[in-house]
Amino acid sequence: MACRPAPSPPRRTTPRPPAPRGAPFADPNLKLAVLEALASSGAIDLGTFEELSAHVHGAPLDYEEVGFSLQTKMRDYLVRYPLDQALLDQVTELWLDGGSEIYGLLYPSGAARPTISTSPPLTA
Prior knowledge:
Layout: E1 11-12, H1 28-41, E2 44-45, H2 49-57, H3 63-66, H4 72-79, H5 85-88
Parallel strand pairs: 1-2
């Protein structure tokens, strides 16, 4: 019986994204859907709202202070997150219903959810 090596942990998502908004897609919402798929499959680790806000803002956001509004700096970080073809090749399914977990990283309450439109195929 052969032993398989343990799977490597997901990539931690703390790079400073140099990518243009939404790249490699024209639609930033499609980019969010792809990030959701990669996070759900374990290919990347976006962390929790608190972890992502600490990375983007330098300190965790206080729910009492930010309320239920869209966190634009966190959205801008995610839509510029660098994606290469190797990551895109790992995406096998997208759910474009606007109810994805990734929106919990953009809205502290997770209450507001935008509509996601469709775009061209996943290529870099």
